[in-house]
Structure formats: C-alpha cells, structure tokens
Specification:
By secondary structure, the chain is mostly helical. It is 56% helix and 8% strand. It has one domain. Strands 1-2 form a two-stranded antiparallel ribbon. The protein has a two-stranded antiparallel sheet with strand order 3-4. The protein is globular, with a radius of gyration of 20 Å.
Length: 265
Amino acid sequence: MRLTLSAIFAFAAISVFAETVPPPDSIVLSKHDSVQLKKTKFLKRSAWMVPTGLIATGAVIALNKWDEFFLSNLEIREERDRYFPKFSNDADNYLQMAPAFAVFALRSCGIKGKNDLANQFAILLKTELLITAIVTPLKDIAAEPRPDTGSRNSFPSGHTTQAFAAATVFAKEYGYRSPWYSIGAYTVASGVGAMRILNNRHWFSDVLAGAGIGILSANLVYATHRHKWGNHTNQKTGLKKNNQLTLTPTYGSTGNAGLYMRYKF
C-alpha cells in the first residue's frame, strides 16, 4: 500500500526532528552536567541519519536503481498524470519561505525562541548561504532534465530544500514549546515538496534529495554556530548591554520589495 507524498515527508521529518528540548537559558547545570555537556557529539545521530538517507534514496532513484523494488520516478509521474493531470498552483513559490517568516512573526508576537533575534537572523542567513552553495552547483553537475520543460536543472529541488531548511530552523527555535510547532513547520515543507511534483516541476527523487539537503544544512549550521550575538557584558561596568537588530519590510511605489536592517551595537 502506497502512502501519499505528504505522509511520507511528514513521517520522515516530524518523527525525528520535533524539537522538545527546553531552551538553553532555562537549563540549570551542575558541574557534572557541564562535563557531560562538553562531551556532546558535534552532530547528533538523528540530525544526519534521516537527511542523509533521504539524499541517498533520492540519488539512487534518480539513477534509475531499484525500479522493481522501490518507488520510481516514472511510477510517481504516472500516478500524478492519472489523478492530478491538470493540477497547477503556484502556492509552493510562497510557502517555501513560510517557516522562515514564521520565526520572526512569532517573536514579534512576544513568543521567544531558543535564540535572540540577532542569532536567529544569523542562523537563517548562514543556512540560506549553505543551501545555495550546495544546490546551485549540484544542479549543474547532475543535469537532470525537468519533467515538464526538459531543462537540465531538476535535481535537487530548490523549493523543497528551502522549505525543509526553514522548517528545521523553525523547529529548533520553537519546537521545545510544543511538538505541534515542529509538526506544523514540517507539514508546510512536505506540502511544498508534494506540490513540486503535482505541478510537474520536479521528479520524486528531486524532492527527496532536496528535503534531505535542507534538513542537513540547517542542522550543520546549528552545530557550528558558536558566535552568540545579542546580549554582551560591559567589561568596565559589569552590566549587560542589549544589542538590537531591527528588520523592517519595505515596499516602493514601483512595486519593488525589500528589507531594511539596522543593528545597534
């Protein structure tokens, strides 16, 4: 029995990456705990096993392996053509960024995540740079034809990579409050992946690999994010000074949109 595309992504992502750990400032450590904390692995097993599996599975399917034993691109394409032949919707172009915008939306509503605003912005920025550095050259190297136009830039799916990277950041920032934050973020990302196939823009393998790259990239950024912005202590007075990052959306009369950023040291 086959699962729907959304169910496949939701199960693979939500079951592993729902963030339920309390934020760092709410944890009281003893000396023993501090020693154990230093021995924590660079990247937890759950942070790389599932995304690596998704990437590997996507690559294998793209190379036309396991056709007789596993879901293939052509089988998924046939089901899409049978049940949703006229499907066309551009919501995935906007939903891919929804979890990223939700990070700042919740903070503006007074709901704080694990990190302050400056660090959240830095993490998202580094994640965006990393996925761009991975996906852009990989598309050229793979040169996989798209199912609709035949353009050789299909593998992996950039939209899916973006959606799952942003969902992972959102889950890590707010998942400790309730698993439903993570479930919501990964459900949106799963929907983006499914829509890329239903819109006939990508193959199943493109979406699987994109999801894995997005999750793994965000986890790598969190594992290497060491420079903490935000509150610093004045060495002379011993008092904390609050650094403030202000982000303001802008929209011009000509239709151009942008983002104004001001950081107070």
